[in-house]
Amino acid sequence: MHILITGGAGFVGSELAVRLSEKSHRVVVMDNLVRRGSESNLERLARHGVTFVHGDVRNPEDFENLPSGIEFVCDTSAQPSVVSGYSNPVFDITNNSLGVVRVLEYARLNRCPLIFFSTNRVYVVDRLLELPRREGATRIEWDAEAWKKLPVESRARGFDPAHGISEEFAVDGGQRSIYGLSKLIADAACQEYAHAFDMPIAVNRFGVIAGTGQFAKLDQGWVVWWAIAHYFRLPLKYIGWNGKQVRDILFLEDVCALVELQMNQMDRFRGDIFNLGGGAENSLSLREGTQLLERKLGHGTTITSEDAVRKADLPIYFTDNRKAAKMLKRHAKVTIDERFDRILEWIRLNEASLKSRYGA
Ligand SMILES: NC(=O)c1ccc[n+]([C@@H]2O[C@H](COP(=O)([O-])OP(=O)(O)OC[C@H]3O[C@@H](n4cnc5c(N)ncnc54)[C@H](O)[C@@H]3O)[C@@H](O)[C@H]2O)c1
């Protein structure tokens, strides 16, 4: 198949491009390289025979530079940081939503199925904060007992304390971050196009994605950032919740495997939404991440704490993957321990370049 990956020089898109090219697909990447670090993926893409087109998804004329015969589109382009969304909201909202409408138009005119990379950040933070929780020794947990005591009519849809947040959870009625808003507009546009123009479209709401090759920062890609900071003994800070905040982690290999599975079933999807994450069994608090890295590296780093909670941040989130497991017939095969080994091995292999990138 001839596949276009928009934003394909980034962390997720470039890995997907390489994997699909290894499966004998012809892959074209279009990216404006706005993300610092994306340019360093170009050499790897070229080595794997992936065609690179420098272009901005907001500009319809840039699509004219693409080769003809594209049969499938994956849209991974975005400014993906929650924190930086607040410093330039107009850029983030227009970049992450107008861009997707252009990609949808391209897919419509070229009769391509499309997979959109959305986010769990579309869910309303205020509703997530209302879910009953308690503090354990190393992590915050959802409180199943308190949940059971709530009258049925006041229990939030799309939540189960054992399984996490499903596709049914609230997307309106409160704040979700500027980034979340920008992706919600795009997410809704994908659903609308699927129905308006009978297009095979899947909307994947990913949680935290981690993997080797990630140019992680404190505000985006915290798993790899935590590993890099521990490795080079860079100072870290728990911001809010005393380091007990919990996220589930989906590793990049599993993201690519899930997308490949979806690509073979697109006729079934008309704007179908999938929550894709590591799930309860692959959840981790920052404190637990610290313990794991200290055990693996044999040393720690300096970590301070700040009580103030960042805007739209959450004490706990993990993904209810049951819809994806049922429809895609695949459970993400992740083991956190083994994947951390791979991330540390990647850091070891790239020690010199990472050292200078992170000023270690
Ligand atoms: N990484 C995660 O944990 C995560 C979690 C949930 C959802 N997502 C979504 O997955 C997708 C990929 O994320 P990532 O972590 O690879 O981010 P990334 O920043 O590494 O990659 C995004 C790429 O898009 C490009 N881009 C941005 N705006 C563009 C534009 N207007 N035109 C062309 N290219 C543009 C950037 O240059 C970059 O190479 C994003 O849509 C993001 O919202 C990521």
Molecular structure report:
The protein has 360 residues and is an alpha/beta fold. The chain has a single domain, classed as 3-Layer(aba) Sandwich (Rossmann fold), CATH 3.40.50.720. Helices cover 38% and strands 19% of the residues. The chain is built from 13 helices and 17 strands. The strands form five sheets. It has a seven-stranded parallel β-sheet with strand order 3-2-1-4-5-10-14, with helices on both faces. Strands 11, 13, 15 and 17 form a four-stranded mixed β-sheet that branches. Strands 6-7 form a two-stranded antiparallel ribbon. Helix 1 packs across helix 9, helix 4 (89-109) packs parallel to helix 7 (178-196) and helix 8 (222-231) crosses helix 12. The chain is globular and about 55 Å long. Nicotinamide-adenine-dinucleotide (NAD) is lined by residues 7, 9-13, 31-35, 38, 56-58, 76-80, 95, 99, 117, 119, 183, 206, 208-209. Residues 7, 9-13, 31-35, 38, 56-58, 76-80, 95, 99, 117, 119, 183, 206, 208-209 line the site of nicotinamide-adenine-dinucleotide (NAD).
**Bulk shape:** globular
Strands, total number: 17
Q: What do we call the CATH topology? A: Rossmann fold
- Helix fraction? 25-40%
Oligomeric state of the chains present here:
single chain
Mind summarizing the main beta sheet? 7 strands, parallel
CATH uppermost class = Alpha Beta
CATH superfamily: NAD(P)-binding Rossmann-like Domain
Q: What is the average per-residue confidence, as pLDDT, rounded to a whole number? A: 95
Question: Which molecules are bound in this entry?
Answer: nicotinamide-adenine-dinucleotide
Based on CA atoms alone, the radius of gyration comes out at: 20 Å
